Amino acid sequence: MPIAILDPFAGISGDMTLGALLDAGADPDWLRNLPARLGFSGVAIHITRTERGAVASTKVDFEIPPAAEGHGRHVDQLLEIVRLAPISEATRARATHAFELIGQAEGRVHGVEPGNVHLHEVGAVDAVLDIVGAIEGFEQLGIDAVYHLPVAVGSGWVKAAHGELPVPAPATAILLEGVEVRADGPVTGEATTPTGAALIRVLSAGRPPDRWRAVRSGWGAGTRNPHGYPNALRLILAEDAPEAGLVEVIATDIDDLSPEYVEPLREGLFAAGALDCAVWATHAKKGRLGVRLEVLVAPADAERVVAALFTHSTTTGVRRWLARRSTLPRHEMVVELERDIRVRVKVWNGPAGVRAKPEYADVVAAAQALACPAIEIARRVEHQILVGVHGGNDAAHR
Fold first, then answer.
1. How many Cβ atoms from other residues are within 10 Å of residue 284's Cβ?
2. How far apart, in whole angstroms, are the C-alpha atoms of residue 310 and residue 295?
3. What is the Cα–Cα distance from 84 to 73, expressed in whole angstroms?
């Protein structure tokens, strides 16, 4: 699965996040239709291409008529809008959590109940569009796992409804509790808004994995265009790269597990994070037949894999050691055989050229759908990949 990495080197806000999502490939029409779906008639969304510090970026602006904004709304009213919105349950849960966090932070600052917080610093309609749109935008891109790099908070002072406040503003500082931030950098003024901080909290699982490969990136422009740095949020779409680097080897010998339970054991290990799992027959004590199982896993996932090994097998002990792997660069491509029939393919670039291996489960599903032998599907896919790599055929794409 692809992952996303937020790089808020110049801070993060809701409109910057939306711009970065569009720049990374989200459908502009999806965003333009969002206000009507959420019941905000008359609200228009303007999407423009611009530059921030000589970096081409996408800027998102809302045109909100006074009748739509009214006199602002309390957090409880915004939660009700989210509860009734035609959005997925995953988006609803995260958006609800975001507004609860904002209400709790503003409530602590102003000494009121979270649900009664009146959004002075964040426009109510803006906040709903920013938060729901940003969360749903990752669904649009097919992203489940989001991570972030340290968050810039800026420096100096920011104007608020009740006067000037130090950066980060009090509510933003509360929302960033527990989040890795950076106080260096060139940003003077507010870099991260309360909405941006809330999005980091509900979207991100923390720091990115140790190893990953960038697939593409998008840049979401902030409102200001200062001299000397790009006031933009960078969004990196990436793939996990677990096939390279340092691994832990976990091995055990088992002579009292019925063979039909070996495959469920392997499935449990892969679900826990194993990178590879090899099994071969051995002779155990007293002439018993057994199996030797050897698992490769990233060190960070080793404890989960060991726990899965104890859970799904009869072993009472394992052997563990560190090893380094040298592997060929790898990426994933997709072949579309017919409409809605796609096969993922692992592609390796080696000294002797390109090698391709279609995903077995996708080949079987395509064979059933097309009433064709699986081996023929595999050959057809491999041919299209090689033609696409060497000849630029559109049938093979990332």
1. 14
2. 13
3. 16
